[in-house]
Amino acid sequence: MGSSFEEKSVWVQLSSMVLVLGGYFVVAGSMMAGGVNTLIAYVPLFVTAVVLMVIVLIAGHILAAITGRPEPRDERDRLIEWRAESNSSWVLAIGVLAGISCMVLGYESVWVAHLLFGSLFLSSVLGFVLQLVYYRRGV
Predict the structure, then answer these.
(1) b/e map 113-131, b = 16+ CB within 10 Å
(2) DSSP at 4
(3) Whole-prediction pTM value?
(4) Are 14 and 128 in contact (CB under 8 A)?
(5) pLDDT, average across residues 121-130
(6) Which of 41, 90, 97, 138 is the least crowded, having the fewest Cβ atoms under 10 Å away?
(7) Looking at the predicted structure, is the pLDDT value of residue 116 above 50?
(8) φ and ψ at residue 125, rounded to 5 degrees
């Protein structure tokens, strides 16, 4: 049995996120290691990553639509998405609590912002991976 459009869409989202935002974190990490500690310096990098993400997502979804017929989401798709989000949201919660703790402890805002963004990124990646597992294994 082939992959559904929804499963292909998850692959597109996961791949683009890992490639584009993974690249963002590599460059941002290098900048942070080099002593760049003002958030405004990361804005061009962030905007570039967002634009690239949109382009990659559009291209990936066009390819997914060409290779398979899009069908409406069904109850199984919604259950898989809900379960994956439910099981990955703890990463974001821990990141937010760590970010708040870092703010209280006086860490620079650039570190706090990247901690929060990183926890959102990791939570999303885990959610997509779990969706793929649930599509393959079943729910």
Answers:
(1) ebbbbbbebebbbbbbebb
(2) P
(3) 0.90
(4) yes
(5) 97
(6) 138
(7) yes
(8) -60, -45
What backbone torsions phi and psi does residue 5 show, to the nearest 5 degrees?
-60, -40
Say which residue the tokens 């942070």 belong to. 32
Write down the domain spans for the chain. Answer: 5-137
What is the mean predicted confidence (pLDDT) over 100-104? 97
The SS3 of residue 74 is: coil
- The amino acid that residue 45 corresponds to is L
| CA atoms of 130 and 126, how far apart (whole Å) | 6
- Compute the distance between CA of residue 37 and CA of residue 14 in angstroms, rounded to an integer: 29
Q: Residue 2 in 3-state DSSP?
A: coil
Q: How far apart are CA 112 and CA 106, in angstroms?
A: 10
Determine contact, residues 98/115, Cβ cutoff 8 Å: yes
